[in-house]
Specification:
Distance between the termini: 17 Å
Oligomer: single chain
Radius of gyration: 19 Å
Helix content: over 70%
Low-confidence stretches: 1-11, 251-265
Number of strands: 0
CATH topology: Rhopdopsin 7-helix transmembrane proteins
Length: 266
């Protein structure tokens, strides 16, 4: 990571410039591609088993892992009144809880109409994550003016997909939030071992995307025990659950060394 003396020397205009650069470059990369339609076979998952009348039972029940991860983070946010960008983090975990409900509902009745209620809270969660990380990165009152427009953009990305069938804006919403994780870590200075927890967010999310793409293959590899889509839910929820782990790591370090310089991954 970059030396603290260098990051301190970076003024706000430089930080804003870097953030705008990341947004513009990722937007250009996404929209240089042809329109990205929804895969017509997306709703046909490998594991279609029903138990006690519950269709797609493992995909449905594994959605509850988002509820658990969201509740852990939401509870921590409500308890820690002094955390930075607290509102954005609180809304992020609240949206994650809604992802659990929306994903479970979708997997009970897989169709584009129900997929909206899966993707809408996901987009809101990504944009709340973006606002939380960008607010910490920029400092000051940036969270206040970033949060509202970010959430509106997240909701718009789902509405654009539903109306036009083009997923590019929805993909960009996810990409921008994840790209801010390494940016924040690199420019946070030294002594931030707890940021490994935060770095694990995009890592486990990318693994979850791979599991989703390899849905039938993983189902075959596991002797029809667990599908790639079920594993996707568990890996994505794990990536979210590691964020409070970052905060708890920071708290335990502060307790063991109260005279150490205060650092924050929040």
């Amino acid at each position: 990571m970059i030396d603290r003396r260098f990051t301190t020397a970076l003024g706000s205009p430089w930080k804003y410039g870097l953030l705008i650069y990341v947004l513009v470059v990722t937007l250009a990369l996404v929209f240089m591609q042809d329109p990205l339609p929804q895969d017509p076979g997306y709703h046909h998952f490998a594991d279609r088993r029903s138990i006690f009348g519950v269709p797609n039972v493992l995909d449905t029940l594994s959605s509850l892992s988002f509820v658990f991860a969201g509740l852990v983070g939401f509870r921590y946010c409500r308890r820690d009144a002094g955390m930075k960008t607290r509102t954005a983090w609180t809304l992020f975990f609240a949206a994650v809880i809604l992802v659990g409900g929306g994903s479970g509902f979708y997997h009970l009745y897989p169709a584009d109409e129900t997929l909206v209620w899966d993707r809408l809270p996901m987009a809101l969660a990504f944009m709340a994550l973006f606002a939380a990380l960008a607010g910490q990165y920029l400092g000051g009152s940036s969270e206040t003016w970033l949060l509202g427009p970010s959430l509106l953009l997240g909701a718009a990305s789902v509405l654009v997909w539903h109306a036009s069938g083009d997923l590019r804006l929805y993909v960009w919403v996810q990409l921008t939030a994840l790209m801010l994780v390494p940016v924040k870590i690199v420019f946070s200075g030294r002594g931030r071992k707890q940021h490994l927890y935060l770095l694990s967010v995009p890592v486990f999310y990318l693994l979850s995307r791979y599991a989703e793409l390899a849905d039938p293959e993983i189902y075959r590899w596991t002797q029809e025990t667990i599908s790639g889509h079920t594993l996707k839910h568990l890996l994505a929820a794990l990536s979210i659950g590691l964020i409070p782990g970052c905060w708890l790591k920071q708290a335990s370090q502060a307790e063991s060394n109260p005279y150490a310089p205060k650092v924050s991954c929040r």
